[in-house]
Design goal:
It is a single chain. The protein starts with 9 loop residues before the first helix and ends in a 22-residue tail after the last helix. Helix content is 29%, strand content 17%. It has 488 residues and is α/β, with parallel strands linked by helices. The strands form four sheets. Strands 1, 2, 3, 4, 5, 6 and 17 form a seven-stranded mixed sheet that branches. The chain has 13 helices and 17 strands. It is globular and about 95 Å long. The longest helix has 19 residues. Helix 2 packs across helix 12 and helix 5 runs parallel beside helix 8. The protein folds into two domains: 283 residues, 3-Layer(bba) Sandwich (FAD/NAD(P)-binding domain), CATH 3.50.50; 122 residues, FAD/NAD(P)-binding domain (3-Layer(bba) Sandwich). The structure holds flavin-adenine dinucleotide. Flavin-adenine dinucleotide binds next to helix 2 and strand 2. Flavin-adenine dinucleotide (FAD) binds next to helix 2 and strand 2.
Length: 488
């Protein structure tokens, strides 16, 4: 090992060790998937991965590791702007504990710890409290580089539709490509979009919103808020971190409002964060899965105590509990918020209301949306009515594939795998939070691998029948094929 890192230190040494480990694991294996050609004579892509955030890059690497190499990974954003870390996330540190694994796919030298120790030593690791937000991004990009995963930044999927036996994906570059499997690793809002609250005078799509009302998951220039009074709807993690970021940028006041009487106190997802739950949730019957996640969704999750500590020490910060908003009126010089207790003027309002899961909002899936099976299609009408949000989650198959509401109408739907937050009711949090990724990615890739193998099983079997390998040639017992009898 000393030879291996000779002349290198820090991350360069860590990269050499990791590459050596990958070589020991025979990475990358040869491609085994037979070529397919479309009517235009062009080779059909085996897998298109959409999104190169944490889930997309892990899935892409996992596919290469399984010898599925005719793939492309596209990413709408530019390099270092993948995912929330350097765009819309506003917390200094991750909520998760530092020892989490996942993007490493079980290779010790590719863990966050290996990356961190390479730069700060084991003492630095011991002293580290939690992962800094941008360190997590840099770590992910380092893994991507070491595993040689090609990512096309600045390329978005715009539309997917059936085209004969294949899917046709239209990209923002104008390219239209035929693909066999599509993995939508498009992030937290990839199965819907921003959730906007409904108020009589507020239109989120109207022109008056610009510069006055923002969603906390949007990119925001906080330097514009110096001296401003900010009203924040919501008291969970992103709402509080947005309020704190505004105050740290020079805002005069930031008030976070909630309907509830106090902060939620218990993070229920921690109780579901162990291998048994992570592997087992997706194997449960529908009743259990529905019961677990409708409970989880309604329980809510407290903000990290670090975020609350960060905010509560800032002058100008406050919470208003048990004070729901009734209306939001945008004027030329500010926003008037009417609550159940008062009418208050703000310069700017931030909506920390999260995102919806609603497949009908995804423009790229418009050709399929009406036939996507949802959890609401599987539950009794009164149950679906009582859990309107949960009822809109897609009902996925065992490999994260979308399923048909009406079987036979859009059969290619099962070639679209939803590897994002929308999968939690079906599989648990395996394609959204870091801890579940070590279960989610192999499950996805195994399903794709089975399906691609099954589609060509006759050819694979024929190749095996015809296989010729003169392994015994160097010995005295080699028999040429034409003289063999009884046994091949
Ligand atoms: C503020 C915040 C803090 C979080 N903190 C934690 C934490 O501490 N611990 C934890 O376990 N989890 C945390 N999470 C949850 C989760 O880990 C992250 O959301 C993580 O980024 C999920 O990875 P992803 O790949 O699913 O999505 P993302 O990282 O968002 O990646 C999706 C990518 O898809 C791209 N994309 C979308 N649509 C298209 C398209 N049509 N074509 C091409 N590209 C497209 C996007 O540009 C994006 O880069 C946090 C999430 C947020 C928002």
């Amino acid at each position: 090992m000393a030879d291996l890192v000779e002349g290198a230190t820090g991350l360069e040494a860590a990269e050499r060790i990791a590459r050596h480990d990958l070589a020991r694991l025979n990475y990358p294996p040869a491609n085994w998937v037979p070529e397919r050609f479309g009517p235009d004579g062009k080779r059909v892509l085996d897998v298109l991965v959409v999104g190169a955030g944490m889930c997309g890059q892990t899935a892409g690497w996992n596919l290469l590791r399984e010898g599925i190499r005719n793939i492309r990974v596209i990413e709408r954003n530019g390099h270092r702007r993948e995912g929330p870390w350097n765009t819309t996330a506003r917390m200094p540190i991750l909520r998760s504990p530092k020892h989490l694994t996942g993007p490493d796919l079980g290779v010790p030298s590719l863990t966050f710890r290996a990356w961190y120790e390479a730069q700060h030593g084991s003492e630095g690791w011991e002293q580290l409290y939690k992962v800094k937000r941008l360190d997590w991004l840099d770590y992910l990009l380092w893994v991507r580089q070491v595993v040689d995963l090609p990512v096309e930044n600045g390329v978005a999927l715009e539309h997917v539709e059936p085209a004969g036996k294949f899917l046709k994906a239209t990209l923002s570059t104008g390219e239209a490509i035929r693909v066999r499997k599509l993995v939508l690793a498009s992030g937290r809002d990839g199965s819907g979009g921003f959730k906007w609250p409904r108020f009589p005078s507020f239109d989120p799509d109207g022109p008056k919103r610009a510069g006055r009302i923002f969603h906390t998951l949007e990119e925001i220039d906080f330097s514009r808020f110096v001296g401003k009074r900010i009203g924040v709807l919501g008291v969970l993690a992103t709402a509080i971190d947005n309020a704190a970021t505004a105050l740290e940028a020079g805002a005069r006041e930031a008030i976070c409002y909630a309907r509830r009487p106090h902060l939620p106190q218990v993070n229920k997802s921690k109780g579901a964060s162990f291998p048994g739950f992570q592997r087992g949730q997706g194997m449960l019957d529908d009743d259990w899965r529905w019961q677990i996640y409708t409970y989880m969704l309604s329980a809510g999750s407290p903000p990290p105590h670090e975020s609350v500590l960060r905010a509560q020490k800032l002058p100008g910060f406050s919470f208003r509990f048990a004070e729901p908003w009734l209306d939001v009126v945008i004027e030329s010089d500010g926003v008037t918020v009417k609550t159940t207790k008062a009418t208050k003027r703000f310069d700017v309002v931030l909506m920390g209301t999260g995102f919806d899961v609603d497949m009908s909002r995804r423009p790229e899936l418009a050709s399929f949306a009406s036939n996507i099976k949802l959890w609401g299609d599987t539950r009794a009408p009164e149950e679906a009515k009582a859990n309107v949000e949960a009822a809109l989650y897609p009902y996925l198959g065992p490999g994260f594939e979308l399923m048909e509401k009406e079987p036979g109408r859009t059969p290619l739907l099962s070639n679209i795998h939803l590897f994002n937050w929308g999968s939690i009711l079906s599989h648990g949090a395996l394609a959204g939070d870091i801890p579940g990724l070590f279960v989610g990615s192999p499950r996805l890739v195994q399903a794709i691998s089975h399906s691609l193998f099954r589609a060509d099983v006759a050819q694979h079997a024929e190749n095996m029948f015809n296989q010729e390998d003169p392994e015994l040639e160097p010995t005295d017992y080699f028999v040429p094929r034409e003289r063999r009898s009884g046994t091949l």
